[in-house]
């Protein structure tokens, strides 16, 4: 078995290609997959990764890792992938072969860059699929939005405000609070936009219960692993380039967890 880069109380990270690890994993052993893959748009990750492949080669590679993630997903398990709209359409076509569509979650992505003769891009997608009927679906409530200046409700509830649930509103498939971390104090990898921990955190809460297993094949800044550890979900991940930054994230935020033996029999995930 390949030695992990590091372990925590609830998980372990491998510093190798996700297909290398997926190829060793048993089928139907993972409760939730969360994937934020490279988009093949020439993004500079500042780590040596080349984000500009031949388009056909890129999609062939995506079919491989998506299929493998679907294979290791347990019946009723959930698959989330974070993508921009064009990729969401392409990935959805692939996912439809093996899983059942649940939601295209639209997430606000505020930016300042023009796009020539195209509409201003204001959202990314979080595709949510399950392997058959979902075995877990936990409802999430969010606070009623208020104006930061006058502190009054932003939306008009037609005189029904008093009937709203005291814990807030049911989470919808449109998330307005998910713009990327742009300030350096919130980043693990200098100079690179990262996924807010809120995004994988919500997905994990919706689709799993404590003690279940999360797999993220593209570690990036480590948001999924951080969220899983906080939520007491067991996790497994791979990251070829930024493992040291993910480790530093745990050193900073969860030092007591780092270096521990995972509390679940992860060896049983592998053939």
CATH superfamily: Vaccinia Virus protein VP39
How many helix segments? 6
Number of distinct beta strands: 11
Shape: globular
* CATH level 1 name: Alpha Beta
Indicate the percent of residues in helices.
10-25%
Averaged pLDDT, please? 90
**Low-confidence parts, pLDDT < 50 over ≥5 residues?**
none
Structure report:
- There is one protein chain.
- The chain has 271 residues and is of the alpha/beta class.
- It has a single domain, classed as Rossmann fold (3-Layer(aba) Sandwich), CATH 3.40.50.150.
- The chain starts with 5 loop residues before the first strand and ends in an 18-residue tail after the last helix.
- 23% of the residues lie in helices and 20% in strands.
- It is built from 6 helices and 11 strands.
- The model has no long low-confidence stretch (mean pLDDT 90).
- A 9-stranded mixed β-sheet has the order 1-2-11-10-3-4-6-5-9.
Name the features:
single chain, about 270 residues, alpha/beta, Rossmann fold, nine-stranded mixed beta sheet, 6 helices
Gist?
By secondary structure, this protein is an alpha/beta fold. It has 6 helices and 11 strands.
Structural topology:
Elements: E1 6-7, E2 11-14, H1 18-22, E3 30-35, H2 55-72, E4 73-83, H3 85-95, E5 100-108, E6 123-130, E7 141-142, E8 169-170, E9 174-175, H4 198-207, E10 213-216, H5 223-230, E11 234-238, H6 243-253
Parallel strand pairs: 2-11, 3-4, 3-10, 5-9, 10-11
Antiparallel strand pairs: 1-2, 4-6, 5-6, 7-8
Helix pairs in contact: 4-5
């Amino acid at each position: 078995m390949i030695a992990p880069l590091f372990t925590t109380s609830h998980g372990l990270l491998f510093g190798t290609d996700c297909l290398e690890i997926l190829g060793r994993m048993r089928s139907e052993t993972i409760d939730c997959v969360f994937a934020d893959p490279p988009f093949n748009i020439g993004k500079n990750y500042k780590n040596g990764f080349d984000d500009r492949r031949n388009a056909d080669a890129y999609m062939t590679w995506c079919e491989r890792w998506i299929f493998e993630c679907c294979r290791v997903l347990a019946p009723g398990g959930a698959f989330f992938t974070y993508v921009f709209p064009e990729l969401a359409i392409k990935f959805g076509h692939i996912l439809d072969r093996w899983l059942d569509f649940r939601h295209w979650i639209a997430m606000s992505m505020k930016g300042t860059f023009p796009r020539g003769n195209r509409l201003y891009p204001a959202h990314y997608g979080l595709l949510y699929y399950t392997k058959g009927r979902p075995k877990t679906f936990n409802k999430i409530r969010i606070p009623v939005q208020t104006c930061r200046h006058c502190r009054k409700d932003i939306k008009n509830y037609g005189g029904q405000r008093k009937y709203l649930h005291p814990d807030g509103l049911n989470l919808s498939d449109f998330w307005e609070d998910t713009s990327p971390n742009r300030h350096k104090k919130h980043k693990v990898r200098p100079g690179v936009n990262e996924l807010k921990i809120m995004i994988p955190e919500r997905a994990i809460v919706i689709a799993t219960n404590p003690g279940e297993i999360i797999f993220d094949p593209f570690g990036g800044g480590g948001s999924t692993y951080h969220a899983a550890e906080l939520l007491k979900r067991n996790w497994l991940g791979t990251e070829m380039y930024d493992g040291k930054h993910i480790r530093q994230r745990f050193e900073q935020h969860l030092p007591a967890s780092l270096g521990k033996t995972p509390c679940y029999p992860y060896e049983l995930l592998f053939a």
